[in-house]
Specification:
The structure holds 2 protein chains of 2 kinds. Chain A is of the alpha+beta class. Chain A has a single domain (9-139), classed as Hotdog Thioesterase (Thiol Ester Dehydrase, Chain A, Roll). Chain A has 5 helices and 7 strands. Chain A has a 5-stranded antiparallel β-sheet. In chain A, strands 2-4 form a two-stranded antiparallel sheet. Chain B has a single domain, classed as Hotdog Thioesterase (Thiol Ester Dehydrase, Chain A, Roll), CATH 3.10.129. Chain B is elongated. Chain B has 3 helices and 5 strands; from the N terminus they run βαααββββ. Helices cover 23% and strands 32% of the residues of chain B. Chain B has a 5-stranded antiparallel β-sheet with strand order 1-3-4-5-2, with helices on one face. The two termini of chain B are 23 Å apart. Classes of the chains: A alpha+beta, B alpha+beta. Chains A and B meet through helix 2 and strand 3 of A and helix 1, helix 3 and strand 2 of B.
Chain lengths: 140, 143
Amino acid sequence: MAGPKTGTMEEIRALQGKKAEESMQIDRHMIRLLCDCIGDHSPRWKDTAPPAMIITAMVSGGAMSLGIPIPYKRSVAAGADWDFFKPIKAGDTLYTTHEFYEVQDKSSEKGPRALMVYKSTHKNQNGELVAISTNTIMSY
Amino acid sequence: MGQQLFYEDVTEGADLPVMEKQPTTQTLVRWAGASGDYFELHYDKDFAQSMGFPGPIVHGRLEAAFLSQMLTDWIGDKGELRRLSVQYRGNAFPGQTLKLGGKVIRKYQEGGENLVECQVWVENPEGKQITPGTAVVALPSKS
């Protein structure tokens, strides 16, 4: 998210629907680092990753990999949704499709403002849907 | 390991068990490494101040991860977190004690699952809900 370029609303609208794909193998070490960081020491998370794995930017932060410009100088994370369908196990490979879904013009008398919405679909190596995530960034 | 929560145990309007977290600057660096978010706003004081913040701020996704832990601790090993939705409405700073909480909004059955919808939030030391949201969990039944 550091230093995104700016573009006009027209240029950004033209990028709606742009997709990027990436894959990542999840291993026990990644699960342990994550659990140690958040302080979740449940024995449940040894071979199974906690939902927080999907929450991480490396998995569901599609805004970074798509390189979409922002309409205004500043941006901030506004919100995010995660739907969890299937647990991730150590050894799974996640195949994620990130999509720049839409830009919404929210400008008002308070000033220019826009919401950038990204959607990511996460499947495992068997083609099973693991999670869907939505990430909203406000540019102002 | 927490006690197993069953669908029959849940009452609409009930509070979720409160969880407290005190992320430090080291927590933020560890989260950067574990989550792949290296935005300087979360570890570089000069950078954060250049953006108008008094110092590095806690990652919103780390707060969401804390909320997911609060929920999975509450529902037990046989429960499943189905959905988490958050809005980022304020900032937390390293060293602050954050209070995570929630309340059951409704319980319902759908698609063969016993589901419970909750309000959830992260509250800063001033008592402001900086990261409110909603969650849906699936619980086993005693029957």
